[in-house]
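Handout, section B. The chain below has 302 residues.
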Amino acid sequence: MEIGMIGLGRMGGNMAQRLIDGGHQVVAYDPVREALDATVEKGATGALSYPDLASKLTKPRAIWLMVPSGEPTEITISTLAAELSPEDIIIDGGNSNYKDSMRRASLLAEKGIIFLDVGTSGGVWGLKEGYCLMVGGDTQAFRHLEPIFQTLAPSPQEGYGHVGPSGAGHFVKMVHNGIEYALMQAYAEGFELMQAKGEFKLDLHQISETWRYGSVVRSWLLDLAAAALAKDPKLESIQAFVEDSGEGRWTLQESIELGIPTPVIAQSLQARFRSRQEQPFGTKLLAALRQQFGGHRVKKAE
């Protein structure tokens, strides 16, 4: 099957390679020439612009986007749409806000262009293990592109599905990532507690390996924790600084709008915020208040 791809960063490039290895014809474009050349070397047909990409695909065309969410996706879709025709399909495989995806689907529909929002999970391991794909949008378009989804998924029978109308794919991926925040935080807290119990001299890598088999807390995240601890048992090469890419915030905003409590996800996001602060003002105020009402000792700033 033929598919166009825009955005050949690490994840997009790996997806293109998985499609090529699966026997699909890929026409690829990326403004970064090195990324484009690397994908062409893997077997893709290169395109040098949006018009060039559109001209090299057979109608009705399908083009998969793997570009950063927000303005880059907005610009890409609006620019690309000018080169497409009715019944062509645009697939957004990035981490867009589901409300943006609903709006984009509506605007493209006015031009007869079909839009699918595909929540994509798998990260850097997707090339080897396959990607979990949560697809929102037109059912017929999903069925038409199902061979693509089956190739990208872990198997033709597992790890992909049509989850609902436009926006549903990115909504489900948003919640997926909120859950991911909470799971990661739980592992982090548990391992920190064990690390602090110095009298037992616990081998955290050995414990993580033990938990990987038969335990009710075994998971792929635990597998990755074991790999990290094998490489750097005390994590001395890593700073305690954790970014967030937005989906956790969107999940909390949605929980507020719907009146659905998500306290564990909320706390995991707050923990990431705290990790980025050096000498946070709020903690200083706590120390100052204890000194004011109880005469408790404080540590002076250096």
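Note. The mean pLDDT is 96. Compare this with the example in section A.
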